[in-house]
Design a protein that fits this description.
Layout (H helix, E strand, L loop, with lengths): L1 H10 L10 H10 L10 H8 L3 H13 L3 E4 L2 E4 L1 H5 L2 H24 L2 E8 L2 E8 L14 E3 L4 H7 L4 H8 L14 H13 L4 E4 L6 E9 L4 E10 L4 H19 L3 H8 L11 H7 L10
Antiparallel strand pairs: 1-2, 3-4, 3-8, 4-5, 6-7, 7-8
Helix pairs in contact: 2-4, 3-4, 6-10
């Protein structure tokens, strides 16, 4: 009998001992999220960590409540606290890495200055800047900031937020930098609505700096915009000619960060990023200019 029991125990799968402390169990769960774009269901977490489903669910709830993780209909992902570890550059390194080759390609194809930025409160924070000779005449720098309401970069991101979010972020922070700067929240909402009607294309002509024009599009994730890309020229630059290139670059960065994004958008029949190329007729409809030449 003893020999039979020993044989059965030897043939049975080895039981994995659970980590004794809550800290170790939380670490197991956090280690399952390998990057900003990682999204896991409860079942995924339980399988990766070998924790009981009920234990994993209880710890996940606590991590969500403390902002270490986010939880949406798409699953769990890293939250603000986790992404903020290691400083600002650490939280945005993945975006910069995914965008870098596309920014350089944009600059080579257009000869214009290229920006990559994220929204930080009522401002945009510049993550990258690529450009040739003209770059010296563009008063921006990596690590610098600018008001979101008067930059194409900022408006491209704000357009994908709920109006209530825009109110919280921007209202009370609007100031005029030039005579073309949007000066009140109502006008800003009107401009953001026009950007949505253009499927996310944002323009700026002399709103932040008198002689600078920009076109931008947002890099979007599962829950909304995570960054934006812009092309910068002087006041006479025909932005409509390069707008499709900006849209395409933003779309490719989105897919690099969130590989399953396109299929989920199709299945849920929500707004999709524009196609790779747009016909001149489509561009003419999207980029309707007022009689006085204003983009607003």
């Amino acid at each position: 009998m003893t020999a039979l029991r020993a044989e059965q125990e030897a043939m049975a799968p080895a039981r994995r001992e659970l980590p004794p402390s809550m800290v170790e169990r939380m670490t197991l769960i956090m280690d399952a999220f390998t990057g900003r774009s990682t999204r896991l269901t409860l079942e995924d977490v339980a399988r990766c960590t070998h924790l009981p489903r009920s234990t994993a669910h209880r710890i996940l709830d606590q991590l969500v409540r403390l902002n270490w993780l986010d939880h949406t209909s798409f699953g769990y992902s890293l939250g603000k606290r986790a992404l903020g570890l290691g400083g600002r550059d650490g939280s945005h390194g993945e975006i910069r890495e995914a965008a870098a080759p596309l920014l350089h390609n944009l600059q080579i194809r257009t000869g214009m200055v290229v920006h990559l930025a994220v929204l930080d409160g009522a401002e945009v924070f510049y993550l990258d800047k690529v450009g040739g000779r003209f770059a010296l005449s563009v008063p921006s720098r990596v690590g610098g900031r600018a008001p979101a309401h008067c930059t194409a970069l900022g408006k491209a991101i704000l357009a994908w937020l709920e109006p209530e979010q825009v109110e919280v972020l921007i209202d009370g922070h609007i100031s005029r930098l030039t005579n073309r700067t949007i000066g009140d929240i109502g006008t800003l909402h009107q401009e953001l609505n026009r950007i949505r009607q253009r499927r996310g294309l944002a323009f700026e002509r002399g709103e932040c700096f008198p002689d600078i024009s920009c076109v931008a599009a947002a890099v979007r994730g599962h829950e909304g915009p995570v960054a934006s890309i812009s092309l910068v020229g002087d006041a006479r630059t025909p932005l409509e000619k390069v707008a499709p290139l900006v849209v395409d670059a933003a779309r490719q960065v989105s897919l690099a960060l969130f590989p399953d994004l396109e299929s989920q958008r199709r299945s849920r029949a929500v707004h999709r990023v524009p196609d790779r190329t747009w016909s001149p007729e489509t561009m003419n409809r999207l980029l309707a200019v007022g009689q006085n030449g204003d983009w607003l």
